[in-house]
Design brief:
The chain is an all-alpha fold and about 110 residues long. It has helices spanning about 1-20, 55-60, 65-80, 95-100. It is elongated, with a radius of gyration of 19 Å. The N and C termini lie far apart (about 55 Å). This is Protein GAST1.
């Protein structure tokens, strides 16, 4: 019985460490940027992790009256580009993929 508790504790401790201190596979990257170019030709996307998109978009869209639409498209763009421009408006040059993604009509896709 004590051995089962010890094994359970060790497994839990390892899981907590894996969540608290994730590591990147050497030479393999994180896998999220594959096939998602950021506009500069290297195909690696931005430098955000997918779970960082929501807080970045919440900040970027915090001053618009169209908050729901802004959040929807910002999160969609971030999921593709792994980048959100700094500030509340503009600065899209910091994220070429985000800046270059256009609608069918040719307008900007990302807020």
């Amino acid at each position: 019985m004590a051995a089962n508790k010890a094994v359970s504790f060790l497994v839990l401790a390892l899981l907590l460490l894996a969540v608290a201190f994730p590591v990147e596979v050497v030479g393999g990257g994180n896998g999220y940027g594959k096939g998602k170019g950021n506009g500069n030709g290297n195909g690696n996307g931005g430098n955000l992790q997918p779970w960082e998109c929501s807080p970045k978009c919440t900040s970027r869209c915090s001053r618009t009256q169209y908050n729901k639409a802004c959040l929807t498209f910002c999160n969609k763009c971030c999921a593709k580009c792994l980048c959100v421009p700094p500030g509340f408006y503009g600065n899209k040059g910091a994220c070429p993929c985000y800046n270059n993604w256009k609608t069918k009509e040719g307008g900007p896709k990302c807020p």
